[in-house]
Fold this protein.
Amino acid sequence: MTTPDETARHSHSAESNAANGGEMLRAASDVIAARLTIMAEGLANPMQADMREMSLMGSEKVEALTASAHAMTDNLGDLAARVSQSALDEVAHAQQAAARIAAAGSPQAAATAHYDYAVAWWGRAAGQMLTLNTELLKAQADALAPIHSAAVANAARLKR
């Protein structure tokens, strides 16, 4: 599980994700408008076409999407490892609970052992879900970052 500081940091990324998403969409619309103008001017006068900018239109997207996919792959790999470890840990908890229930000296002691396991499981499950949710927010932020960066940089560069 993540620490409370990590959880707070990951949760804060939800606000950043929303702000960055809006900024990215605004920048993307500015870039699209500027590049449509560049393409139209290139079609009207091919000898004066901005071939450098036209070539960037594809290569920048591939670069940003590759970085985004790499970030997502890394994060999802980490999440899969964490979920697998949580499942293994829970098997161990269940085995211990089963042993306590089986060794109980009375039906009441067995019920108490079962209840203790169920309450502890609920707490672990809630903590794991919070951890998973906050780590998914981090994965989203990491995947969005290279696309956001490229769009905002292009919008600034293409402003005329």
Summary: The two ends are 49 Å apart (CA to CA).
